Structure prediction request, 77 residues.
Amino acid sequence: MTTYIAEFRAVHKLIQVIQHSVFTWQQEGGEIDSDLLQGKIKRESAMHFYKLLAGDSYEVAMEDISVEISKTEPFNG
Prediction:
């Protein structure tokens, strides 16, 4: 298993805050599937970030979040 790190930016279509962050994950070697990674970041990071911001005032939907991955590389930290 190799550990990777990705730098990403998440944007919600209504909440006017942009999440700039990094995300680590493990996978067997091979190519990184960007679509799969974007979904993983949405589920495991961005959804929680936007739910925290919205509190009880707004229902956050995954379809309202877009993720742009800037860079990925193996992580040895």
Q: What stands out?
A: Residues 2-74 form one domain. The chain has a mean pLDDT of 94. Helices lie at 34-54.
